[in-house]
Amino acid sequence: GAGVSQSPSNKVTEKGKDVELRCDPISGHTALYWYRQSLGQGLEFLIYFQGNSAPDKSGLPSDRFSAERTGGSVSTLTIQRTQQEDSAVYLCASSLGWGYQDEQYFGPGTRLTVT
Amino acid sequence: AQRVTQPEKLLSVFKGAPVELKCNYSYSGSPELFWYVQYSRQRLQLLLRHISRESIKGFTADLNKGETSFHLKKPFAQEEDSAMYYCALMIGAGSYQLTFGKGTKLSVIP
Lengths: 115, 110
Prior knowledge:
Chain A is an all-beta fold and 115 residues long. Helices cover 0% and strands 48% of the residues of chain A. Chain B is mostly beta strands and 110 residues long. The A-B interface holds A 3, 31, 33, 35, 42-45, 48, 50, 56, 59, 91, 95, 98-109 and B 32, 43-46, 49, 51, 86, 88, 90, 92, 95-103.
């Protein structure tokens, strides 16, 4: 079946511009996670959505970052006024439920380059 | 806050040699531990998790709570094992995101 998909696969933007990254989770998966993979920091958690509960935003690095999940499915990560340190690969993952036993399936990522 | 440490950025072994990828964690509670793998040009995927007590592709990992370690082992490395390996933990209790180590690149020399 279809896995997690993300778009665009690559995004180059100028410093100061806003960007939107999209994630389509596996159908029926109730939990959705955003992570960031950068050279210096490795893989970092950003935010996760758990069913209809309020999202856990504890990993967002600044208030320039926000995310929505519409209709319990598609999610959009928005970065406002991008900075060069935002350059990274942004990974989305989804899982059937939330818990130790629920495998997180990762998408291919969006590579963001801020010039 | 929890932390995962993978001390080796790069590990090179010969084909057929044993492999051990080290992982240490710090967390005051009892987290769940995972190993993820990313092969070249592929997406990140789960390799194994402590809760399942499984062996995948010949790899095993034992949780040592005294040493707070979850090292990944394989008795005989294969060329297809060359990849990036990430150790991760989940603290649970309403917090189900993964905290990752910085990864170890395993290179198996033919």
